Each structure stands twice: as structure tokens, then as C-alpha cells.
Amino acid sequence: MRVAFYDTKPYDRDYFSKAAEGSGLKPEFHEFRLGAANAASAEGASVVCVFVNDKVDRECLGLLAGRGVRMVALRCAGFNNVDLDAARELGISVVRVPAYSPHSVAEHAVALLLTLNRKIHRAYNRVREMNFSLGGLVGFDLYGKTVGIVGTGKIGRVAAQIFRGFGCEVLACDPFPQTEWAERHSVRYVEMDALLSAADVVSLHLPLNPATAHLLNADTISRMKRGAYLVNTSRGKLVDSVAVISALKSGHLGGVALDVYEEEEGVFFEDLSESPMQDDVLSRLLTFPNVLVTSHQAFLTEEALTAIAETTVDSLLRFLEGREAVPERVLA
Ligand code: NAI
User: What average pLDDT does the chain have?
Assistant: First the structure.
């Protein structure tokens, strides 16, 4: 079975080639992202395998269906870039990797926060220039601070437990609270407003959908504690970046760590070091000493890449062999 992979990087090719060895699957790796304009490239493939920034909208799905594609396999957890209603109508199955390593993302969120708070990013550059002074590098203890976890799914729960390990008080907010888990780890569920006003650090671990887009906007940010830190490793559009810039300029936000950005498509994952930056909002964000941006790399651990490749290959083989799909992976 031919499988067309889009938006692939060398590490995708390595891990997927290894997972597909001897399986009968014929991976075809494309570096470009899938969209309606290049859907013809899937000719001859029964499955397309996509990532977070491929644009699998109604138009694209219609073109794929016309070329005989019967399945979209997302090699990620989030699925906001696929029109599931259109896929259902066209009889295209959609599967994802619901859980690969929640630890990879949760640990990255904590790594970003510690780097930012303890000014490691600035210290690293300073000592390389033989500047061993400590001016401007004062951080704060995480111990005793209040951390607000928005979304206590697989990743949010791991993040909450790590913060409990630091001795933080952890508040959480989720329309589907995990009460037993919360009791076991001394995590307290509160309403979003209470979380925003009490937390020294707010970390986002919820999916992007029409109800959660710009959840953090000028209004909700203004309800955060003055000087609070915001960490987003979920999806860029959960946060209004222009509102974040205003809050950073006024000092209302003490620090912002982002692994995702609302206009990351075409920027993140690419080497743009030779071209002029076209995104003025991202450029402005990158000028703040108390902003740390990584380009959607929270998932990038050996364990996560192995699990992503193995789960995806298993879903494809089930499809090929007419075996039942694993229910929690099926979206349409
Ligand atoms: P999950 O589905 O296990 O958990 C999401 C949780 O968010 C659920 O408990 C849900 O009830 C909750 N939620 C939904 N709407 C909410 C709201 N308005 N307020 C509070 N909570 C709400 O998802 P998982 O695996 O924990 O992933 C979380 C997000 O992390 C994903 O949706 C994805 O966007 C992002 N992600 C980012 C990665 C990266 O490399 N930066 C890698 C993997 C996931």
C-alpha cells in the first residue's frame, strides 16, 4: 500500500522507515505540506500521512477522495487542521496518534518555564562571551508557587504531577475533571477565572477548537495575576499574540514561553535564517528578553517519535488488512 507522507523532515523519514520495515507499506516522503493546491501529489496513494500544519480542508479532502485516497493518518494528537465533517461525508477515515509520550510535551513545558524563569537562555549567551556577571539574572523558586493547568488530559496531568514534585500548589480547570486523580495528587479544580487570578504560572494543555480559540485574549490575560508567566505548548491559536505583546509591554505578563504560535505554518520547522522575517508579530515577540520561543518541538524525543511511527504504522496495517481500528485513534 502506498502512503504519501507530507511535511516530512529527516527524523520523520528515519523513524517511519524503521517502523515500516517488512510491513509491505510503501512510504513516499514529501517535504512540502499538503493542501488543496498540491493534492494531486497523492495520486496512487491510498493513505496520506500528515502533520500539524498540513491543511486538510474540505477542498483538499474532495480532491484526495477523487484520487482514491481512503484514509488520512495524522502523525500527531491535535486534529484542528482536518475537516472531519467533510471526511465523514466523503467516506475518508481519519486516524491520529492520541497518545505517544505525554511526558515529552509536559517535560518541554517545564523546561521552557525553568529556562525562562532562571534566565538560562541569557546566561548561556553571556558566559560564552566570557561575561560572568549575574546582573539581570534573578529568577524565582517554583517551590510554593501556584501553577494553573488548563486542560487535565494526558499531557496536563503529567505537567501537574511534575509541578507538584517541585512543591507547587496546582490548580486545574477542565470541563471533564478527573476527580480521583486530582485527589491522589492534591490538585484542586477551580473555575477558569479563579485559576487565572490565583496562578503565578498558567500552562495550557487543552485542544484548539472554535470554543477555545483565543481563550487567552486581552480580557482573560488582564484577569491573570500581575507578573504571571504563561506557557503554551498546545496550539498557537489558543493565545491572542497581539494581546500578549501588549501585556508584555505593560509588564502585566512576567514571562511567556511558547512552543506554538498562531501563525506558525510556513515558519516553524523551516530554516528561514537567510530570508527577511515577514511576520511582524512574531518578530516583536522575539525581541522581549522574557519571551522564549521554540518551534513546536515539545514532541521531539526519541520515545515520542518511536511511539508516533509505531502507532501510525499499526493503524495503517489494520486498515490494509481490514482489521478493526483502535477506537480511540479514530476521528472519522
Ligand atoms: P487530551 O485530549 O488528553 O486532553 C485535553 C484536555 O483538555 C481534556 O481533558 C479536555 O477536557 C480539556 N479541555 C477541553 N476544552 C477545555 C477548556 N475550554 N478548558 C479547559 N480544558 C479543556 O489531549 P493531550 O494529549 O493532553 O494534548 C493536549 C494538547 O497538546 C493537544 O490538543 C495538542 O494541541 C497539544 N500537543 C502539542 C504538542 C507539541 O509538540 N507542542 C504535541 C502533542 C500535543
Answer: 97
